[in-house]
Design brief:
This protein is α/β, with parallel strands linked by helices. Strands 6-5-7-3-2-8 form a six-stranded mixed β-sheet, sandwiched between helices. Strands 1-4 form a two-stranded parallel sheet. Strand 2 and strand 3 form a beta hairpin. It is globular and about 55 Å long. The chain starts with 8 loop residues before the first helix and ends with a strand.
Length: 283
């Protein structure tokens, strides 16, 4: 959920490139009663190496699609995203960061601050949610968003409409609107997760292992009911409505969003099936 320019052109237009890791990610076809179609493709937003994700079924779906739907349309515009983040994150005279989390989480947060090279008072001008995302990004510094699949999918649009499901400002505003207590829970979850052994979720994505991915949607910060509703279930509900509208309208969307949003009974495939669509996993 804490994500924040393109792959080399040859990597975006072919199934592989030098040094790329082979991937076989999950893909669904969605069809309404009139025969209008769309596709759901779970992505990862960053990787330590380029990814060869364009399998034959994915390539055919991309070719047949009439439009591309993504979370954030300008995800490759690093300067614009940074400006949006800075505008929403700005605050003043905030307390030391360890004072913004429950006492039990303070040792883990202090350790994460040291590892990331920050002091406890370095976030006095930043909201708690923004500090949490900043530290999460620092903890995953080896992951490069330039290798993110979303960016490559957008680059493959080749003149077709790229439709935003959310946009950067709306996405970050979800965090900004959280009550301070929930922002503190977010920060505590980031700090706690940083103390745990690293889990290779990218490997689960490359295998198309939605069981493993669903398990992750019920752990960490998404185990908090309030955060889960705001950051996961509620977003999926809104996105499912927009995807349904696009399919009914004949826009044949190729929907590329984080793979976690495809997982379980609160995922997009399940929500669209509940609306009467025929949803078939084809990869």
């Amino acid at each position: 959920m804490m994500r924040f320019a393109l792959l080399l052109l040859v990597c975006t237009l072919t199934a592989s490139c030098s040094g790329a890791i082979d991937a076989d990610p999950a893909l669904w076809r969605v069809q309404d009663r009139e025969g209008h179609r769309g596709w759901l493709f779970g992505t990862i937003h960053s990787s330590d190496r380029p990814l060869a994700w364009r399998t034959p079924p994915v390539a055919r779906a991309l070719e047949d699609a009439g439009s591309i739907m993504v979370e954030v349309g300008n995800v490759a515009d690093d300067a614009a995203l940074a400006a949006t983040f800075a505008q929403l994150a700005r605050s003043a005279d905030r307390p030391a960061l360890t004072r913004r989390v429950p006492p039990a989480a303070r040792p883990a947060l202090a350790a994460l601050l040291r590892k990331a090279g920050y002091g406890d008072d370095d976030f006095a001008a930043m909201d708690t949610w923004a500090a949490a995302l900043t530290l999460a990004k620092a903890h995953g510094a080896e992951q490069n968003p330039r290798n993110g699949v979303d960016r490559a999918v957008i680059a493959a649009a080749q003149g077709r409409p790229v439709l935003e499901l959310e946009g950067a400002a709306a996405q970050l505003s979800l965090f900004d609107a959280l009550p301070e207590r929930e922002q503190g829970d977010l920060l505590a979850a980031v700090a706690t997760e940083a103390t745990q052994p690293s889990r290779d979720l990218a490997a689960a994505w490359r295998r198309g292992d939605m069981t493993a991915i669903e398990a992750e949607t019920r752990a960490g910060l998404l185990a908090d009911p309030e955060l889960r509703e705001v950051l996961f279930t509620g977003r999926n509900r809104r996105w499912a409505a927009r995807v349904a509208q696009a399919i009914h309208g004949g826009r044949a969307p190729f929907v590329a969003v984080g793979a976690a949003h495809m997982a379980g009974p609160d995922g997009l495939p399940a929500m669209l099936a509940q609306q009467g669509f025929t949803v078939t996993r084809i990869k």
